[in-house]
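Journal club side-thread
Mid-discussion, someone asked how the predicted structure for our own chain would compare to the paper's figures. Pasting it here so we can look after the session.
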Amino acid sequence: MRAFAAILLTAVFCHALAALSVPNSGFEQVSGGKPSGWGGKGRGELCSQNPRSGKYAYKVTGKANLWAQKLIPVKPGHRYRLSVYSRNTVAAGGCFFGLYESKTPAKLVRSRPLEFKYAVPVGKTWQKSLLEFTTLPATRAICVYVRTECRGPGAVWYDDFALEELGKAPEKLFSIQPFGGAVTFTDHVNALAGKKKGRIYVLPEDPEKMPVELAFPSGVKEGVIDAVLTRGKERVFSQRQKIGGRSMQIRLPLEKLTAGRYVLTVSCASSGKKYQEQREIWRLDRPAAAKSFEKIKSYHIGKDGAFYLNGKRRRRVTLSHFPQVGGFLDWNNPDVRAVVAYAKRDFRIENATMLAWRVQELMHIEKRRKLSRQQLIDAVCKKVKTHLDNSLKSELYISFGLGYLLAPEKPLRDYGLVCEVIKRLKGHPALKSYGFDEPELKKMTPQETAQFYNMVRQLDPSRPCTVNLCEQDTFKEFALSEIASYDHYPWPYSNLLNIRQWNRGIKEAFPGKPFICILQSFSFKGQERPTLDFMRAELFLAMIDGMDGIHFSTWDGGVPHHALNSPEMQAYLKLLFNLEERIFTACDGKAPEKLDFSSSTHYISGARRKDIVLLVNLSSCQEDTVRFKASPGSLSDFTEQNTQIRYENGQAVITLPPWGVAALKAVKK
């Protein structure tokens, strides 16, 4: 029986599901040759060949949007699961399904600034994709859609949508406040004393002594809090105390703990209600000393795809936006040098990007127009050189973002200005590379972008130039630079299947070029905060897909829960950089090799890098079991992710939770 019919039958017995039917979920009702209740544009049609069930599926080629015209009533603050079956032979581009949240069931009035958008897998057979979500307090309905951004041959077929209510989201009796001590090092204290300026949060000198703060809503006035800290199966700390007031502190013995991964579980019982939250707590030993700073004479990409500074191979680690100082390196800020030292030591970065942020007077179009041509050139060169000189004093390399600074109000077409700036500044010992961001969004053609790129390379062949892209369906058209890189909206607006498709797409467009995966976090009002699990899974996916250098960018829309101003996200960002460095060092930077494995869903990615096996579950809501060839006792958990390894019939068997990762090292016998 069709899934749609099953939902209708279930509604007879369960009134709560009556409003959850996706209109014409299997595209069986037809009017004028089109599926009833669905609107849209682009190249889509009903297809009677090989539907998953019933008479029809919906086939899409080219670029198309299709959406259910009738909104589906839902409850605020509830969990739901949306699913769809698909077949996908699209060679280039992306195929997605998703939803908009609406403040009213009468018409679409969005509850979030962006929509949920999930990729469907590539494959000739029908595969089921799931997404789970929690509705906002303002949400009263959702609008389901499918979208195809197909370039070239291929098509995608959709069939049998279903929507399930999973229940009310648990009532939060308390919340664990952002905790900067979630990741601490065993060998030193932080570089900065406690300061707070606006939304900028600076960690205290001894984060090991920071208490965990609990906040209680006004309705919770009494009850009991239980806090338990475990490492694996061992309990290392426990505490019970009564609720008293609107807040509470838990002091963990972090300074006494050895290096490793711990889990803090906080439970609350109040007036017959129960609630629980967990946080990972990490104590880290410092990896091997970072390479010393060298003034740059040359920086290039070798035939092996690695980066070479003054003829020596160099790992590339970059922050676009610095924590603690509002994101931007303003050398007039008296704290900035301490911030750089802190970031170099705790995040292990050696490279930063320079855009237009610290030349604000040159960002104002009216002020620029008052300057003569020569005055503008002199002003830009002076400001950039001052920034480079200050970076050199702090032993920090700089990637110079050309577009924003030289043409903030329009596409970069003033090639004369670019020429003058590069002629004066090339060869600076802190200048590592040039960059140009998202030309396709600035309405530049591939030909214009190529002209810009070639000019920069001719002016300064001793430094690479990166053209960073954004529109995934134009990767091949703009495949111009020596380095493959792109931007994307992170969770919850891109899932890991999206990112896997884009990683593969950018590498296909830039064959043989080093791949820089730009990991990101950002904030919009009403958006869920990217979790540690997601960010770690994204990092592992990038390493599996052949990332040649870690680059983290963060920006915000005024909401204080991203990596610039949330101490907890800053703490976990330290963990990501630490994990990447440990794995990169252990595999000696070797490129990933294919790992033959089997799994029960399409959500697993894996690779072998030297003697390290990397695995990641891309699903946000399904666990999966992975099997690959391995002899008993031949593997160990390399990064203490509490990975449980079983051996059956000559295979290693590992179960990964949603967004779960594993780094397994071959055991030498």
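Post-session note: The first strand starts at residue 30 and ends at 31.
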